[in-house]
Amino acid sequence: MNRNPLLKICLILLMPFATMAQKSNKPQFTKADTLRGSITPERAWWNLQHYDIQVRPNLVNKAIEGSVKIQFKIIRQGKRMQIDLQQPLLIDSVFYLGKKRQSLNYTREANVAMINMPFGMKANTEGLVQIYYHGVPREAIRAPWDGGISWTKDELGNPFVATSCQGLGASVWWPCKDHQYDEPEKGVTISVRVPDSLMNVSNGRLINTIQHEDATKTWVWQVKEPINNYSVSMNIGKYIHLKDEFVGEGGKLDLNYYILPQNKEEAERQFAQVKPMLKCFEHWFGKYPFYQDGFKLVEVPYLGMEHQSNVAYGNKYMNGYLGRDLSGTGWGLKWDFIVVHESGHEWFGNNITSKDIADMWIHEGFTNYSETLFTEWLSGKEAGSAYNKGARKNIRNDKPILGVYNVHNTGSGDMYPKASAMLHSIRMSMNNDEKLRQLLRHLNKKFYHQIVTTPMIEKEISLYAGYSVKGIFAQYLTTTQVPSFDYISSMDGKTLKYRYSNAVKDFYLPLQIKAGKEVLVLKPKVDQWQTIQLTPSQIDNLNLEKIENYYYININGRKEVQIKMN
Ligand SMILES: [Zn+2]
How far is the CA of 416 from the centre of ligand 1 (A)? Predict the structure, then answer.
């Protein structure tokens, strides 16, 4: 209890400011964020089975009209169904397609429609709803990061149109359950009607084209495997089609490339990287996850995106990231960033999808790590480590990698290089590449076409690492501190004292350090010194400063100084 009245007044005066300061640090979320980012009661009672999307874009007015049929399984009776459709798109009508077609009432709140469902729907049966809609969807501002629809023209003046909506959500251009936790088990059919001089390329396989009398054509694409809805895409252009095939772990895989004719030669040269990339990723991650739907690259007017079985490509047929190396080491110029990174997402992002976008590091961290593995595939293990370390210069440590759950919030952009550096550190501590390979393949098998959370991934990695990675995950995913490896070696070099500092309490990352032909294993404790005696060979060959080349930790070492007392 404070008995000083003056101090009490000061504290009261300060309080509102303190509260304000606290508030401003915390992101503020709205009801709309909760509707978007959580499994609301209006979402929870039904389970997606299939989407049938039929759209007709108007390339002149930058508008769209169409309908989406949503097939779902009824888990338990629900009164209202939440469907997301972002403004300014308008819903025209909603029908329940049962024994008879029945019009349904709905209310709209912000970017959501709450549809009143008919009575008498039984659990464990299926339902079908059709939503008609139209409007002028959000135009992409800086695709793919600030996405929507890019209505552009190619160099020859032909329409060149593409969707991109990761983060923003598929509901920016079609009505859906806009949350990653639920994917349509039986896939999606996408029919897009365009002028018949053009072509639409969507995900999966082309199953039909319908010529109409008004000089338009409908391109019907079918995706048979579950798909995250931000992957569903529409790409319109005056494309030509190149074909190839890859014989991999799942048999024959069709490779289809849809590109602008003026880029044919460059595409043939650049896409030669697809097969080695697939070979490398199948080696490390297991079979390509979408053999049924095939593999495609489709040229788009923006950099690129991991659209499942239909990777959007706009890297200008250059190696690196638009000709740049994000690692600054030169290794990143040996391959095409978009071919490699976006295809890596077929395993991490599309096959294994995070339930909440707060866990998006599962997509970006592992996929960023696929770049390290491909560098290693081409140029050797040291090159891979150098690439991984080089990419650390992009780490900002501005905020945690994990976002806020249930409000459609992502964490720091560090989810790319820092999560990848974390994975590389775990790998180095395992010092067993075959084990690592088994782990990565195990993840893609165990969670094949599934939705996961960070604790689920943590559990599996711990099994293969041989120790709990809980502390590592806590350190790198929830704090912005870089652990420090502190050491003091004795004057004669025979004794080594070491510990971790600047780390969470249960941070545990064993270090396996090469010392000549030997490997020295250290298990530093946080804020607690340990001492070992080194062998003559270790004294000669140990270079502790090199640890940071392989582990994302700072090194803070010195030689013991003996102070003579008079
Ligand atoms: Zn990515």
Answer: 8
